[in-house]
Amino acid sequence: MFKQSIKKLFPDRAHQLSFLILAVVLLVGIPLFCDSFRLNMAAKYLSLAFAAVGLVICWGYGGILSLGQAAFWGIGGYCMAAFLKLEAARNIAMEQGSDQIKALTTVGLPDFMDWNQITELPRLWYPFKSFPLTMICLLVVPGLIAYLLGNAIFKRRVNGVYFAIITQALCWLMEILFVTSQGLTGGINGITDLRTCLGWDIQSDSAHNILYFLTALLLLGSILLSKRVLHSKMGKILVAIRDMEDRVRFSGYDVSNFKVFAFAFAAVISAIGGALFSLNVGFMSPKLVTIEPSIYMVIFCALGGRRSLIGAVYGTLIVCLGRTFLSEKFPELWMFIMGGIFILTTVVCSDGLAGLVEQYGSRLWNFIKKYTRIDVLLAKISPRLTLSKEQS
Amino acid sequence: MQGFAGLSQFSVFLLMALGLAIIFGQMKVINMAHGEFLTAGAYTTVVISDLVTKYCPSLLPYYFIFAIIMAFVVAFLLGYLVEFMLVRHLYHRALDTLLATWGVSMIMQQGFRFIFGGREDSAILPEWLMGSWSPTDTIDIPLNGLFLLGTSIVMTLLVAFLMHRSRWGLNVRATVQNREMANAVGINTKKVDRVTFALGCGIAGIAGAVFTTIGSVSPAAGSLYIVDTFIVVVFGGAGSLLGTVLAAFSIAQSQSILEFFLSGVLAKVWVLAIVVGILMIKPQGLIANRVRK
Amino acid sequence: MNIESKVRNRALAGKLGAACLLSAALNAAAADDWKNPVLDKYPTAAVATSGISVGDNYVTVGQLHSISGTMAISETGSVEAERLAIKQINDMGGVLGRKIKIIQEDGASDWPTFAEKAKKLLVQDKVASVFGCWTSASRKAVLPIFEKENGMLYYPTFYEGLEASKNVIYTGQEATQQILWGLDWAYAQGCRTFYLIGSDYIWPRTSNKIARRHIEEHLKGCKVVGEDYYPLGHTSFGSLINKVKLKKPDCIYSIVVGGSNVSWYKQLHAAGITGESLAKKNKLLLTISTTEDEILGIGGENCEGFYACMKYFQSLGNENNVKFVEAFKDMWGDDSVIGDVTQAAYLGPWLWKATVEKAGSFDIDNVATASEDVEFTGAPEGYVRIADNHHLWSKARIGKMLKNGQFEMIAESDELIEPNPFPEGYK
């Protein structure tokens, strides 16, 4: 049973190995070399990687380029942030005599609402009083929006370019709405000052470490889930649609349903990432819900290789690390480098890092095999892993 | 009065969209760097205006016409370069042009910042563009707005003439409809592509030059317009010049009318929502090219 | 407008990043061969007990502004002013005999980046204080970190108020300081109807809220005839101008910020609303957001004759300011302009120095408690004093915009105005 399911997820050893390496890098490598400050940064990057993983499914496999992925990611983030903010507001209400309490007219209401003359909690915020409801919201709302939107668009056979532009417009629309409805969303400041989650201080070092592992594990989990979807019949049809939509349609499939599913699935995965971002970073801002981060997410995915779930994670890590370190040293050069990456990954190697590995990886592997006995070693450590290869 | 506020917005949209309608509508290239060509044109104007004030202030009243031409030339050359180095490799991958040109736009923006610094800049307006024309006591129509409107009408007519009445336009349309066939009858399609792309960029450059009369220039100025412009082109129906004009007009007018009754932000939200809504019902845009797939 | 100055300014903005790195290196070098003359009186073990980065001859501070991205334009002036103040303090012998070393981080106009860098400064570099932030959003993003890690932030921008923290000293004006007195002035000029205009974010909205209350409840016979907000970066104000013309307010009260400013004033000018034309009808335009920095981009001819209410203008004639302007131009080029926020940023390091010397300690807790009543007599704006809520007592002034991009001060409050970040009855 276990072997079966592994086989289903990983068609060959290369896939198994790359997933294992990623798991080792995330769960052992990064925590080993980072203090809790850097680990928290890594967690922030990984929560962006969720969106890239979602894009692999809907863009790499489904051929639907969504330029509004940050919107879904952001909805997840805002749901989580709303829950945490309400909790923070309750905490302040408990803390008698603090400075902040003097500032509030309605105790127990998020501070930004108070500044906007809102005296009781808006209806829209009711679900965020309870943790389970918040969880449901942050998964269901993005999925539902994506489903409705996808249904409206794909049923009319709008092609990819138009879809990209429409999603972009919607993403922009959402940003404007988030910025302008200050009483509900905190406006351009976003929802800030999130300190505890269910009574647990999320700003402490130990919490940062735990949250990092939670993020990494959930990310690995989403990759596995995505692999499961892609290796099912569903995934095969998605690929077929991407390559020759009309032929699939003529074979009797309702193409739009598959596309809608891919789009909604990607939205849900992204939203998980957004929620983790709020937890890790302690605030949510409309700057993260706009067109620019959406395009960054696409480039994470493109750099990693648009058809590689694992590549998407590396793509995210590379771009984010580059941004952090290069922007410390050469803020001016960074934009040029970033632009260069965009151009290179689309013109020269459109399959990104994964493409490079695929092209040169087997040669490298053979080279390593020749001089070391690593394959024998691996086979000893984990006979299960080599199993599927022998069968295939 | 209020109608005129919409008209000047319409002119900005139209000038931006014209270039894009050629590039996106005809060539199916998603040029995200279109806004940066506008910025390039605007900076050209600023530089020329600075030079003129410094070396021969007496020419100040006339320099603007020259600046418009130079803005076109600069943007045209930049566009030519970008097509040659980048876009021509991507003709069969529309979505990839989007990413690659986004990269170009980042590089161009940073380039502007590098050369001109980050501050807001503006060109010095010749006297004849300042002030307003007031036929009656309650109406004043800003002269720069009139100039903007005039330029956009002239440019639209020029482009329409080029596309539908000139030999070159014929070549472009032939290339778009059937590349192999066009090649076969002796059209140098590569050259047509390059010039078409560069022309689209050049028009954006003109838009930039004219734009300095109502706003300022900063490295990121162009990126403010890019989404709006794409929406105009898509809404109008890609490939249809008339559609672009209609879309620019209806979006600009409805926005400015809504702005009058609602707040500026809400107006924007409503217009965007309505346009996206209409696009979902009618994905081909206002005027569809009747081409069977 | 002076063309050479524009060109110079561009080059300056471009080179600022490199210049900062260079001067940081110089700072460090200067500290190394410096002997602390008062080390006996203030031994390191006594002045820094909480693990912050203080040595026998140096103390480390952080500077956190956007050097890249859209906000870089606005924040450049603050970076320059803080650099100048720190250089002057170092030339005078430093703080408690210790020379100041600067660690600069780039917030890149991105709020999460601000939070990340703030944490780095506090946790990794253990700086004794941070001078930085500009937008409210960036301050809101770093505030929890400063409170959690116990740091000290000197924040230079005029802002919406509704905040007071042990870990922040606000060297700009909070909303009521800037607004109430200015509106009273406009009332005295005969304004009875007001049109409130702003960019769409918290500072203009909160400010206008306070303004509306004040107009409707405290100014006799006055009313607000319109209130409008436009997205940041908006460039076409045609409809708004038409609305304003229709309502014919006595006072156009404008809080438009950033790049929108240029379009706003240019289009006003083109539509025939100028300082002169308003004055003829005994009307005026009053802004609290346009400083000398913005006018540089707008062009003096487009906003000549409009009024601004803030606490500082470059053209102030007092002795402190003359010296400050001269030193600033010496360091950053003859063509620099200095706006209100730039001056407020200059106050930061000086107030910190005064506070540390009063407390005899660099420790954050001591600095925070000692801050109340610290005064700075050498401030370019005149005398300032820190209030118990960590804001500054300061004057309010009305300036009239001139064609050359400067202000002419035409009115000044008699007394220092008390900072009141949580105004009763205005919330």
From TrEMBL, chain A:
It comes from the Bacteria. InterPro entries: ABC_transp_permease, ABC_transptr_urea_perm_UrtC, LivM-like. Keywords: Cell membrane, Membrane, Transmembrane, Transmembrane helix. The keyword S-adenosyl-L-methionine does not apply. It is a multi-pass membrane protein. It is found in: Cell membrane. The chain crosses the membrane at residues 14-33, 45-64, 131-149, 161-179, 260-283, 295-321, 333-357. Signal peptide: none annotated. The keyword Lipid metabolism does not apply. This is Urea ABC transporter permease subunit UrtC. It comes from Pontiella agarivorans. The lineage of its organism: Bacteria, Pseudomonadati, Kiritimatiellota, Kiritimatiellia, Kiritimatiellales.
Automatic annotation (TrEMBL), chain C:
It holds the Pfam family Peripla_BP_5. Keywords: Signal. Residues 1-30 form the signal peptide. It comes from the Bacteria. The keyword Signal applies. The keyword Flavoprotein does not apply. Gene3D superfamilies: 3.40.50.2300. This is Urea ABC transporter substrate-binding protein.
